[in-house]
Recover the amino acids of this structure.
């Protein structure tokens, strides 16, 4: 046995397994990859050993878990998971797919999970959202808070996005202000879509509008309007946003929302004599061969015209 071997102390089994040598190129919470400690490292971590730095999930995640940060200003926005306001429980989901009338075959039939909607946001909303709300308030009746309150039911800020819930009788006025106010200038309505919530009695049908401002660097705002299945009428915004023409037709075709004032509210995907509206949750799952049985396609000179 050599002298070098004799000089090496034996491991004590009570000390546990030997620690692997630290990678000198690994950044830590107290130092960078070159080993330079931050000035405030002693205050934060003491003089103890460095700890691995946390991994940042993305550029929009703030320091607080679940916080959402505005891309333009860096401000933390409310209504993110784990922050106030708390989400609203509107029901519960059972099983993997929420099936009610048929058995759950996924093996997760005993799973119960609450259905959460984001709660109404409170000022300040953060980012450019306050600016949008201020200019919209001024545009709806000269800055009258009452006029804004009559038109907008509530404001939701969730996951860095702004949604205005607008009462249907005020939709055309809100759309006009969003387009024409120089401080807003939402020139584009990029889409109109429908949603069906059978359990929301009196407001089962939702029409969702997505607006984009090119003038103000790609700002976006979502407007949501509700109506009931027994009175499925919402004013059309085609006069203000002509590009919403076919989007409103598709929403009528799939969900049965009637857009009053539309120049030609006819089906766009299904045949004219198609029964019902296929994307409603209560639509029967029949199958195309059954539905198309007996359907005919008229000759070109007898088909309806669209202008």
């Amino acid at each position: 046995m050599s002298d070098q071997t004799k000089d090496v102390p034996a491991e004590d089994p009570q000390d546990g397994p030997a620690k692997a040598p630290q990678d000198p190129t690994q950044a830590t919470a107290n130092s960078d990859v070159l080993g330079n400690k931050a000035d405030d490292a002693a205050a934060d971590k003491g003089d103890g050993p460095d700890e691995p730095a946390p991994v940042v999930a993305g550029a929009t995640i703030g320091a607080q878990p679940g916080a959402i940060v505005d891309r333009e200003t860096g401000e933390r926005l409310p209504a993110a998971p784990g922050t106030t306001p708390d989400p609203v429980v509107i029901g519960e989901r059972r099983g993997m797919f929420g099936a009610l009338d048929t058995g759950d075959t996924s093996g997760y039939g005993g799973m119960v999970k609450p259905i959460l909607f984001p709660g109404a946001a409170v000022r300040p909303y953060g980012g450019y959202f306050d600016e949008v709300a201020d200019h919209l308030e001024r545009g709806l009746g000269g800055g009258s808070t009452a006029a804004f309150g009559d038109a907008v039911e509530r404001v939701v800020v969730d996951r860095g996005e702004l949604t205005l819930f607008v009462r249907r009788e005020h939709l055309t006025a809100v759309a006009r202000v969003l387009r024409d106010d120089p401080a807003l200038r939402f020139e584009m309505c990029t889409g109109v879509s429908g949603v069906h919530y059978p359990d929301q009695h009196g407001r089962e049908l939702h029409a969702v509008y997505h607006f984009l401002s090119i003038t103000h660097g790609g700002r976006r705002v979502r407007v949501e309007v509700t109506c009931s299945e027994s009175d499925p009428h919402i004013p059309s915004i085609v006069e203000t946003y002509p590009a919403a023409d076919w989007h409103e037709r598709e929403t009528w075709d799939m969900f049965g929302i009637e857009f009053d004032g539309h120049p030609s509210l006819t089906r766009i995907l299904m045949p004219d004599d198609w029964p019902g509206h296929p994307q409603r949750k209560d639509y029967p799952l029949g199958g195309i061969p059954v539905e198309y049985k007996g359907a005919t396609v008229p000759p070109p000179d007898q088909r309806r015209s669209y202008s």
